[in-house]
Amino acid sequence: MSVDVPVRPAPPWRRAVGAGSTTPERLRRVTAVLVVGCLASALVSVLAGVDRTSSVQEARTTISALTADSAELYRSLADADATAASGCVSGGRGPTAVGAWCYDDVARATDRLVDAAGRLPDGGPVATIAAQLPVYTGLVETARTLNRDGLPLGQAYLGSASQLMRNTILPAADELHRTQAAELDAAHGRGVAIPFAVLLLLLATLAGIVDVSLRERRRTHRTLNVGLLAGAVALLAALAWWGVATAAANGRLDSAQRHGAAASALDDARTAVLQARSSESLALVARSAGFASDDDFTAEVDRVVGPDGASGLLAHADGGAPGAADRLTAIAVAVGDWQAAHRRVRELDDGGRYPDAVASVVTTTPGGSGAAFEHLDAALADAIGAERASFAVAADSAAEAVAGLAAGPALLALVAAAAVAAGLGRRIGEYR
Hints:
- By secondary structure, this protein is an all-alpha fold.
- The chain contains 13 helices and no strands.
- The protein has helices at 12-18, 23-60, 62-89, 97-119, 124-148, 153-192, 196-220, 226-285, 294-305, 324-350, 354-362, 369-401, 408-429.
- Residues 1-8, 92-101 and 288-292 have low confidence and may be disordered.
């Protein structure tokens, strides 16, 4: 009694290439399929490698530079507004450096603006800032002139300048900064994307080579085909290259993104501090009855530390740079010191000691608001510098991880194509 043993059907690709009247014809078709698979793997690997490498390089250089430029532009504009208000508080008779400092801020902002304009298309926020910045400086200069002459109309000009800065110029600068930050995130996303197309094509071609090798071994009872073995090793090496480079680059890009996000949060915190400084000065200029109030100061400081002292921008500002926790603690302490100094300013003003209140704001006498602000601003600048330096290190390391990714695996796939063709070609030649 005979028993029928079910025969497992061959894979579709094997049935397709195996159809034919002779073994050489079948082997030629198998060779063509595997070589095309290797060549396709090489092409896709080149395209994916170029895209990933360019994304990492773009995040590391152009976009990160623009992001830093836009952040510095925003900070310089906010600093100019705060400095102008501080100068007008002193009645135009304060430190002679105040006027120069304000215009130095405007000059730095202009330089950043010119650099950004050279990298970006015309129009948009850059055009808005370029058009309104001369108007702002004109209003500030008029306010300073009127203040020096003791004319109260200077307050109105300063108020108009501050409103123009806060309502038009700074929002445009913020839009530019947010756009660049979004582009940096997009470049990061492209840089860490899993290369599914490359990996699947390499795996499929490798599986085909292994399948053919095993089948030929059973058919011919030979230990191995050197060409097929070399092709399999080359494709395995290409897979390993992609896997190691992707894992290494992704980890370093994630680190760079954390540092970039922390630097952005610190940039926002520094800008909020500058706007609080401007509000503090404007409240004195207007004697708490004009275009600014103490509520503006409180709102900006709350952005930095949060109403509860733990939910503001500083809560998102630890990117893992060496010493970051200590720097953030120092910043939080400096914020508390400045708030205490600001309360003393308000007490002096409300108690009829206006000149003493002004002196506390416009000078750097120890214990005064001006000194506390300078200490806080320096602490923020130090933290921003540390996070940006750590970003640069991580981004450079990611660029090193993908070096050669566009060419190396593709060359290995080409080597595999040549090895497969040679190995099966020799097998075909045995039938002549």
